[in-house]
Specification:
Number of domains of chain B: 2
CATH superfamily of chain A: P-loop containing nucleotide triphosphate hydrolases
Radius of gyration of chain A: 18 Å
Distance between the termini of chain B: 55 Å
Number of strands of chain A: 10
Number of domains of chain A: 1
CATH class of chain A: Alpha Beta
Strand order of the largest sheet of chain A: 6-7-8-3-9-10
Helix content of chain A: 25-40%
Distance between the termini of chain A: 41 Å
CATH topology of chain A: Rossmann fold
Largest interface: A-B, 32 and 21 residues
Largest sheet of chain A: 6 strands, mixed
CATH class of the largest domain in chain B: Mainly Alpha
Number of helices of chain B: 11
Oligomer: heterodimer
Mean pLDDT of chain B: 85
Strand content of chain A: 15-25%
Helix content of chain B: over 70%
Order of helices and strands of chain A: EEEHEEHEHHHHHEHEHEEHHH
CATH architecture of the largest domain in chain B: Orthogonal Bundle
Number of strands of chain B: 0
Shape of chain A: globular
Low-confidence stretches of chain A: 255-267
Low-confidence stretches of chain B: none
């Protein structure tokens, strides 16, 4: 289904992504772990075509998406939604418009520029917002929301794209523990309900182990681990994280490590 | 205190000290140089002038006093003069409004193509920046004088001159505003597959609009003054009336026209701060 082959990205002499090869054969929830600067973000940005790769190819259903240009490239970006650490909403637009803009690729330039949205689009957007408990903020400006709320709006925008896969670049790194849990759970639900692949860069080990079916570990741009979470031993993880191991292992960084039952008891 | 610092920090501390000392010496030297330049400039001006500045200074207020005395003698009908010159004021404002509108559109177009965060081609950015430089390097008066010679006396040369200057001056400010917008929202839209135009429409314009508006209103204010001045050289409007009345020494009329101009500028100032506040959401 998805085949990444010998992907490389250089920034000057620095190899941000080094000969990365992996395959995704069924809809999976994959966590990519590694220390800062390991090339996780660059990998996702290349997959979404926000950044160009130096060499290599990514085959999606037999087609190399790295060779797409202009309209075809944007059509691919529509199919491959992306969620960012800093949410990347338009701050001065209301939440509903932000969400509907997820469809801007299908709407075409003129229709979306003039905000000539159809009733169906508004209904879809409201339903997506309602699912994440954000419907009542629909007419607020995005900048007035808290980080966790903005990230949920960003997820709604991603869902509006009706994507075939979702890339999440450190989706919970700037959120508090409760919101981090909400966001990770919505992602997992989306993965289960829509049966689509989700690739998420996660800084902490706990989150990756709790929510993902598969973990890819990156170090200095290379893939050094690729297996189910249960086979990731502590010493391997320590090696992946290097100097940042203490921080990444620290369970208090995200309370997702509390697990569902314990959290319910606490609440 | 210092003795307790580790050795490398002491080094940094000493470096900071010597840097501060150098900075103070340089500031002192530059202030001294500035005073010397100003003083020598005064001496040069003093020897170059036909009459000494100290002789001319007391006469500086003669004309303004004449203006007020003349208006006082004109009597209570003075306020009717305001009505008499209102149509001229409106025609000047019209000139300014029209040329600001067209100039702003051109400026927006130019600014997009000269913003490094929107245009990848460095050559395009360079070319459009040079176009803006050329547009704003000629004062309105110079362009207007040339065009008045070519097209004859009318408002058109003034309008064209103001449009050209506005496009260049606003374009530069607009492109600076564009280059300062946050790139995250633009990236967010790009990741959805939004077209280049949609990215600019929502990612850039929404962020830069308050600044665009402030700059445009400020430019409108400047353009009212510019179209007044261009009236002096034959573009019509209230500037031409002001020029004529000053020439003929009609003090009451001159004061009335000045009053109209000043109140227009003040009104615009209030209006612009009101618009800006409501746009950035302080008032809703």
């Amino acid at each position: 289904m998805i085949k990444v082959e010998k992907l490389n990205k250089y920034f000057g002499d620095n190899r941000a992504v080094n000969d990365v090869t992996f395959e995704i054969n069924k809809p999976e929830m994959i966590g990519i772990i590694g220390r800062s600067g390991a090339g996780k973000s660059t990998l996702l940005r290349i997959m979404n075509r926000l950044t160009n790769a130096s060499s290599g190819s990514i085959f999606i259903e037999g087609r190399d998406i790295l060779s797409l240009t202009k309209k075809d490239k944007r059509a691919w970006q529509k199919n491959c939604a992306m969620i960012f650490q800093q949410f990347n909403l338009v701050p001065r637009l209301d939440v509903l418009t932000n969400v509907i803009l997820g469809r801007s690729n299908i709407q075409g330039t003129i229709r979306s520029s003039l905000k000539l949205f159809t009733k169906d689009e508004r209904i879809d957007a409201l339903m997506a917002l309602d699912k994440l408990g954000m419907a009542e903020t629909a007419l607020q400006r995005a900048e007035t929301l808290s980080g966790g709320q903005q990230q949920r709006v960003a997820i709604c925008r991603a869902m509006m794209q009706q994507p075939k896969m979702i890339l999440a670049d450190e989706p919970i790194a700037s959120l508090d523990p409760l919101n981090a849990r909400l966001v990770m759970e919505s992602l997992r639900n989306i993965h289960r309900e829509k049966k689509i692949t989700i690739l998420a860069n996660l800084h902490t080990l706990d989150t990756a182990k709790n929510y993902c079916d598969r973990i890819i570990g990156m170090r200095l741009g290379e893939i050094v681990f690729d297996d189910v979470p249960s086979s990731l031993k502590d010493d391997v993880a320590r090696e992946i994280y290097g100097a940042e191991a203490e921080e990444a292992f620290e369970p208090t960084v995200t309370s997702t490590s509390l697990g569902d039952e314990k959290f319910a008891e606490a609440g | 205190m210092q003795s307790s610092l580790p050795e490398n920090l002491i080094k940094i501390e000493n470096n900071l000290k010597s840097l501060t000392r150098t900075r103070s010496i340089y500031s002192f030297l530059s202030i001294a140089a500035l005073i010397a330049v100003i003083y020598s400039g005064l001496i040069v001006a003093e020897t170059g002038n036909a009459t000494s500045i100290w002789v001319g200074l007391p006469k500086f207020f003669d004309y303004p006093i004449d203006l007020f005395v003349g208006s006082w003698e004109y009597g209570y009908r003075w306020n009717l003069l305001l009505l008499e010159y209102l149509p001229d004021l409106i025609s000047t404002i019209n000139m300014a409004l029209f040329s600001t509108a067209i100039g702003t559109l051109l400026a927006f177009f130019l600014s997009i193509f000269s913003s490094r965060n929107l245009i990848k081609s460095k050559t395009t950015v360079l070319i459009f920046r040079r176009i803006m430089d050329i547009c704003r390097s000629f004062p309105e008066l110079v362009i207007a004088l040339v065009l008045l010679y070519l097209l004859g006396k009318s408002a058109l040369p003034a309008v064209i001159a103001i449009i050209i200057h506005t496009a260049g001056a606003l374009g530069k400010l607009f492109s600076e505003a564009i280059e300062n917008v946050e790139k995250n929202p633009i990236e967010g839209l790009e990741s959805c597959g939004a077209s280049w135009f949609t990215r600019i429409r929502f990612g850039v314009v929404t962020q830069a609009l308050p600044l665009f508006l402030t700059y445009t209103i400020l430019r409108f204010e400047i353009n009212i003054r510019a179209s007044t001045i261009l009236g002096f050289v034959g573009a019509g409007g209230i500037g031409e009336q002001l020029y004529t009345n000053i020439q003929w020494k009609y003090e009451a009329d001159t004061i009335a026209i000045m009053f109209l101009l000043v109140s227009t500028i003040i009104a615009l100032d209030y209006l612009s701060s009101y618009w800006r506040k409501s746009l950035i959401g302080l008032k809703s």
